[in-house]
UniProtKB/TrEMBL annotation:
Residues 146-217 form the DUF1736 domain. PROSITE patterns: TPR, TPR_REGION. SMART domains: TPR (SM00028). This is dolichyl-phosphate-mannose--protein mannosyltransferase. It comes from Schistosoma mansoni (Blood fluke). The keyword Membrane applies. It is found in: Endoplasmic reticulum; Membrane. It is an enzyme of class 2 (transferase). The chain crosses the membrane at residues 31-50, 55-71, 116-139, 169-187, 207-225, 237-260, 266-286, 319-337. Belongs to the TMTC family. Pfam families: TMTC_DUF1736, TPR_11, TPR_6, TPR_8.
Length: 750
């Protein structure tokens, strides 16, 4: 058994566990002479089937073994009868071989249908096995919803070929798998796509290997049922043959298609039978007596006589043992060498390419392993090679496009994605037809849509068109609905986004993510109660769904009810313990504590955000405001605002805050004016910046300029704010007290 002990993925772990339960069950079956042990065996088989459904084939092994036991019991009497009849010379003269066979057949037929046969223990045990088998089979069919899984041409090309090609190729898999057991040299992690060429007809010479393989199996069957075979050997051959054949049947493609051509992992259990056959053959070879022939000539009569003498064959047995030892050492070395291939994904898949260079899946897998390490340029070469090996492999083209995105080459990525779209079913005018599309291939629409979303400026409408096409190709493609809803939200089309999420929920009503998305859309549409209802539904299916918890807390935090605010704080603190987006949660807590006038707690939350992200715009500004307005730390506020305009030069509110600090706390009117003027450069229609500049001019005792500034500020708004008018009156009052009247301007203002 070539067990991959260093690196085994989840599928192989389940295969190993299933094989262990297989062995335990077979070991326990030797003692199932009563009802309790029989039920224990059935229970172990069910547990093994939960690990991997291939364990269900152990029923076939035990039933075959029980039938063999009954067959041996029926033939035992007939064997004695036949032996005695042939020893009797008179009987041989009177009876022909035809009469003997006819008599034996009648006795077997009588015993097979006699009541005694049905009352024997093996029949009861087989009945229990059949009950368990039917129960497990019904459960498995129910899980599959009564349908076989669908596999594409890339997974198993032969299953999509014409009938003759399909059958000949699938039958050829038997000698291929036997060859892997006998000579495990060219091992490969995956045998899909172009690993094995299809057998197109009878003239293919590989059909000879198929004939030889089935002849070998039939020979084992003959040895098993032949009454001349010693009992202990026939039993062992029966068990070996059952272990070799039955576990392989589900993967043979003979009764239903599977998602691979050859899979070495399905040979775990058949290798038990193979090892048993090797052991039996070695035992038989050791038991042979080697014959030596001697010739003697009589000189008188010129007569030549031949004598046979038997030797113990000690030297031959020695050579046999040495040969077997060398074989075992070779297999051990291969296992150790194979373990190094399984040490990491890159080694595993590159070793597979040496065996099957025409397998595009392996080229893709090597690319994935390099992509996971951030080696995008190298990965791109393998993905492009996969496209060359299998041009119609849409997955390979999607990989090429994604790698171009990672390399910052969006135009090349778009070209690769459109290359994949060329292989999708095209609408035929005036004709209706059905085509099955794999969800993994539909990811090209999502990837291309994301590419358009991230463009500058975003091409949201083009992205929406692509996602609608994906939905039209597969109406239950939930990922497309989710992305489509996100695009519609960015377009401000909340009603359509709500409809998209509701359609997705019709296919996955228990999805927390979909309920969350719909809840958020409803909240944005000002449907607070319904939105909270869907958020709570998401939390019903997943009480720890963190985005839903955050959305609920945000909604409760906006309430004026102190109880709701307290619940929001508790949820936020729970999310912090779960380490869910600490920047986002600390900032929300800071804003909530500010609303509750807990300024010290709020400042601590903003400080935590800045520790995690020193350039966080919202936290820097809010903390600066707290320092200046509520905590009496104008210098700290000034430093934070200066850092903010350094990392975010277009942040207008920071210039306003700096201007206020310089004007009020520092009495630096000149510098304050500079900050206000800088804010006006960024936004010439900013009323607050204009008003603050007017105030600075008044403090500088430039009353005429301040009056003109206020008039300009008032003219910027159709309905001037009261404080502007009041400030204008104050400035005019000061001018009037100094004898500097501005009646024309007053008239214009009125």
């Amino acid at each position: 058994m070539h067990l991959y002990t260093n690196y085994v993925n989840t599928i192989n772990k389940s295969r190993v566990l299933r094989t262990k339960l297989y062995i335990i069950t077979a070991d326990a079956s030797g003692f199932w002479v009563n009802l309790i042990n029989s039920l224990t065996v059935g229970f172990l088989i069910c547990i093994g089937t939960l690990c991997k459904e291939q364990c269900i084939t152990v029923f076939g092994i035990f039933i075959a073994y029980e039938l063999y036991a009954v067959y041996q019991k029926i033939l035992s009497t007939e064997h004695d009868f036949s032996s005695n009849s042939f020893k009797n010379a008179n009987y041989q003269k009177d009876k022909t071989i035809k009469d003997i066979i006819s008599s034996a057949y009648k006795q077997i037929q009588f015993k097979l249908f006699s009541p005694a046969w049905f009352s024997c223990a093996p029949v009861y045990r087989m009945f229990i096995l059949l009950v368990f088998f039917i129960a497990v089979l019904i459960a498995r069919i129910k899980i599959m919803a009564g349908q076989l899984p669908h596999f594409t041409e890339f997974d198993n090309p032969a299953s999509h070929a014409p009938p003759l090609t399909r059958r000949l190729t699938h039958l050829y898999l038997v000698p291929v798998n036997l060859g892997l057991l006998i000579f495990p040299s060219n091992l490969c992690a995956d045998w899909t796509l172009g690993s094995l060429k299809l057998i197109q007809g009878w003239a293919d010479p590989r059909n000879i290997l198929t004939l030889m393989a089935f002849s070998f199996i039939l020979l084992l069957v003959f040895i098993t049922v032949n009454w001349k075979t010693p009992l202990h050997q026939s039993r062992a051959v029966c068990m070996a043959l059952s272990l070799l054949v039955f576990p392989f049947i589900p993967a043979s493609n003979l009764f239903f298609p599977v998602g691979f051509v050859v899979a070495e992992r399905v040979l775990y259990t058949p290798s038990l039978g193979f090892c048993l056959l090797i052991g039996l053959g070695f035992e038989n070879l050791l038991g042979l007596k080697f014959v030596q022939t001697k010739t003697m000539t009589n000189s008188k009569s010129s007569e030549v006589k031949k004598f046979c003498s038997f030797k113990n064959g000690l030297h031959s047995r020695k050579y046999l043992r040495i040969s077997m030892g060398l074989i075992i050492i070779a297999f051990v070395c291969k296992t150790v060498r194979r373990n190094t291939d399984w040490s990491n994904e890159y080694n595993l898949f590159t070793s597979a390419l040496k065996v099957n260079p025409n397998n595009a899946k392996m080229w893709n897998n090597v690319g994935h392993s390099l992509e996971a390490e951030g080696k995008y340029s190298e990965a791109l070469g393998y993905f492009r090679k996969a496209v060359n090996v299998q041009p119609n492999d849409m997955g390979a083209r999607i990989n090429v496009g994604r790698t171009y995105v990672n390399l910052g080459m969006p135009d090349k990525a778009e070209e690769a994605y459109y290359g994949a779209l060329e292989y999708f079913p095209k609408p035929k005018k005036g004709q209706t037809y059905y085509a099955r599309v794999s969800p993994k291939d539909l990811m090209v629409f999502i990837n291309l849509a994301n590419l358009y979303i991230n463009k500058s400026p975003p091409r949201l409408e083009d992205a929406a068109v692509l996602l609608r096409r994906a939905i039209s190709l597969r109406s239950d493609f939930v990922d497309a609905y989710q992305n489509y809803g996100s695009v519609l939200i960015k377009l401000g089309r909340y009603k359509e986004a709500e409809e998209a999420y509701r359609n997705a929920l019709s296919y996955q009503p228990k999805s927390p993510d979909l309920n969350y998305n719909l809840g958020v859309v409803l909240l944005e549409s000002h449907k607070k109660s319904e939105g909270l209802s869907y958020l709570n539904t998401a939390l019903t299916y997943n009480p720890q769904h963190e985005p839903s918890l955050f959305a609920v807390a945000s909604t409760l935090g906006e309430s004026a009810n102190p109880d709701d605010q307290l619940r929001a704080i508790n949820i936020y603190e729970h999310l912090l313990k779960q380490n869910f987006e600490p920047i986002k949660v600390h900032f929300a807590l800071g804003m909530l504590q500010t609303d509750k006038k807990n300024y010290i707690k709020a400042s601590k939350h903003y400080q935590n955000v800045i520790l995690l992200d020193s350039d966080h715009k919202g936290s820097l500004f809010n903390l600066a405001l707290l320092y200046r307005n509520h905590l009496g730390k104008p210098d700290d506020a000034r430093n934070l605002a200066l850092h903010l305009i350094k990392v975010h030069p277009s942040h207008i509110k920071s210039y306003l805050l700096l201007g206020d600090i310089e004007l009020t706390e520092k009495a630096n009117i000149k510098l304050a004016k500079q900050y206000f003027e800088e804010a006006l450069k960024l936004d010439p229609k900013n009323i607050q910046a204009k008003h603050n500049l007017c105030v600075a001019l008044a403090d500088e005792d430039k009353l005429e300029q301040s009056e003109s500034c206020l008039l300009e500020a008032i003219a910027m708004e159709p309905k001037p704010q009261n404080h502007l008018l009041q400030h204008l009156e104050i400035i005019r009052g000061r001018l009037h007290s100094r004898g500097r009247h501005t009646y024309t301007k007053l008239k214009n203002v009125n």
